[in-house]
Amino acid sequence: MKLRQPAPPAQVTRDEAVDINTYIFEVLQASRQASMLPFASAFPDPRLFPLQQLNRSLAQVSKTATAMSVIENLPPGNAELRHAIARRYALQGMNVSPDEIVITAGALEALNLSLQAVTEPGDWVVVENPCFYGALQALERLRLKALSVATDVREGIDLTALEGGPAKLSGEGLLADDQRPESARLHTQR
For this UniProt entry, which residues form the secretion signal (predicted)? Predict the structure, then answer.
């Protein structure tokens, strides 16, 4: 069976204020029902977790953890791990200091820290359409504006749509690889 591609979203939409939290909480609350399959979020079925093994591992780690181990893993992260990552970069010919590496507790924390570092309230941020709801929540919390740009399932984000966009953009970065749900890759030529 061949599935149809989804219809393309609007080329560019401008959202003066991002307001997503109420809707997201309703969807997440509904997904707690056993009869629901939560396509709205990337939470695996808890029955898939090896809980006994996880509990043993947690018990073992908690026996050796010190009070300082809780704080030393906050950003910028564990110094030993940052040094190991810097060494791996060096093996690939890149000179990266451990001080330039920040370890986070996941992609959303990394996104929040990045947005805080390079934006100010009221700034515009380009987002894919569709966009991960956690990114929209981060924009809302930081009082940022979303410029939603169409994403093609094969080609990725439509860069030509940015040329005539309704907002002046000052940023120079774009995360356009391994997107969900499309998994389109933006070719370097584009």
Answer: none
